[in-house]
Amino acid sequence: LASPKLLKTVPKKVVAIGATGPLGRSLVGALAEAGSEVLVLSRQPFLASTKERVSHDYGWLSPKVMKMGKVSLRCWDGGDMLDIVGDDWLGWQNDVASFCGKEGAVVMNLVGGGGGAYTLGALERLNECIANYEAKVTGVVNVYPDDAVCKWPIARETYAKCEAASRGSGVAKVYNVRLGRVLGLDSDAIESNAYSNIFNLVSAPGQLSTSMGSELPWVFEDDAIRALAFVATDEIGVKSFVDAASININAEAPSSEFAAAGFGDWRKMK
């Protein structure tokens, strides 16, 4: 998990998709520790909540995260239906709408990955829920690899479609955050290798064993978590934003990117 008491200001409620990977697990833990209620949508919630990891083919939340009391898992059918067993996913839209309530919730989209069809599919399913089940969503934060990292045309095309889908969802505030490779994530060797392969894949297709190289952007885990929480917080509401903001976060110029977008210095949250 990220450093203890990392965040000072967080949204009251968060609906997270793609949050059972190394970055999502860390973000969910930090948000819950700071007081957010987090609903994690997962195609395999049983495997995501086990005390010990059963398979690296599916995401996982650590026991420490699950014991925080503010994190709940809900089965859903976003993304690849082949991963779903049984009918536990039925009715998830009503549960999301109930969770959001009258105050609303912020959606954190961390599906990202290599930009496969499931990336767009998951977001489209959530958009359907927002439109047809009156789930009150106050903002959407899409998290993708930095453009300097994501050089795979198919992935870039998918992320662009996701951004367009979010803008068409009717949600007033949509923020697209581009991260460099996040350093310092808590993961075992298998998961760490898979995470590295994602970045190698989108940077150099067909060369999964290639070293990333020092020229690619990166950001430390704690800084990435702080920045994402800052964007997700209701106080981000820069009123001039009526469409979407795209923000790059990496170690080279994190504060200048935020200043250019009108946010001020996010590092003051430390």
Question: How many runs of DSSP E, i.e. beta strands?
Answer: 9
What does the average pLDDT come to?
75
End-to-end separation in angstroms reads: 16 Å
Strand content: 15-25%
Q: How many helical elements?
A: 9
Helix amount, in percent? 25-40%
* SSE string, helices as H and strands as E: EHEHHEHEHEHEEHEHEH
Rg, please? 17 Å
Most strands sheet: 7 strands, parallel
User: What is the 3D form?
Assistant: globular
* Broad structural category: alpha/beta
In the sheet with the most strands, the strands line up as 3-2-1-4-5-6-9
Poorly predicted spans: 202-214, 235-244, 266-270
Outline the structure in words.
The protein has helices at 22-33, 45-48, 63-66, 92-100, 117-132, 153-167, 189-203, 221-232, 254-261, and strands spanning 13-17, 37-42, 71-75, 105-109, 137-145, 174-179, 181-183, 218-220, 244-249. It contains nine helices and nine strands. It is an alpha/beta fold. The strands form two sheets. Strands 3-2-1-4-5-6-9 form a seven-stranded parallel sheet, with helices on both faces. Strand 4, helix 5 (117-132) and strand 5 form a beta-alpha-beta unit. The longest helix has 16 residues, at 117-132. Helix 1 (22-33) crosses helix 8 and helix 5 runs parallel beside helix 6. It is globular and about 40 Å long.
Secondary structure layout:
Blueprint: E1 13-17, H1 22-33, E2 37-42, H2 45-48, H3 63-66, E3 71-75, H4 92-100, E4 105-109, H5 117-132, E5 137-145, H6 153-167, E6 174-179, E7 181-183, H7 189-203, E8 218-220, H8 221-232, E9 244-249, H9 254-261
Helix pairs in contact: 1-8, 5-6
